[in-house]
Amino acid sequence: MSEFNNVTVVKKANVYFDGKVVSRTVKFEDGSSKTLGLMMPGDYNFDTQAAEIMEILAGRLDVLLPDNSDWQTIVGGESFNVPANSNFQLKIHQATDYCCSFIEE
Description:
CATH class: Mainly Beta
Oligomer: single chain
Number of strands: 9
CATH architecture: Sandwich
Radius of gyration: 13 Å
Largest sheet: 9 strands, antiparallel
Distance between the termini: 23 Å
Strand content: over 45%
């Protein structure tokens, strides 16, 4: 899906890591939400509350998911899942455009 219809966009940006990771929240009629954002090159450590699906629209990164010892390379067009209440690490190699979907359990 290249666009979302009938949504509400929160105007205030989510800004992390001194502005190197920025996203906007998109709310859907069914109560679900996603964030659309851009990550600049760097190493980042994220904590989750809800489970997430991270869809990489463009760019390249390495991810270290919970309970894994090997880094996985992800490029534009690929995605990965992150469990709820966990921590994951990212190494962003080039500006990376993403869509994060929150999964309610």
